[in-house]
Amino acid sequence: MEENNPIAKQLLHSLMQFRSHFRPKAYKGLKPSEYKLLFTIKAARKHHDLDITVSGLSKYLQVTAPSVTQIINRLERDGLVERQMDPNDRRSVQVKLTKEGEEITEKVLEAYLNKLQGVIDYFGEEKSQQFAEMLSEMMDYFNQQESATKRDEWS
Question: Tell me, what's the pLDDT at 155?
Answer without folding.
Answer: 45
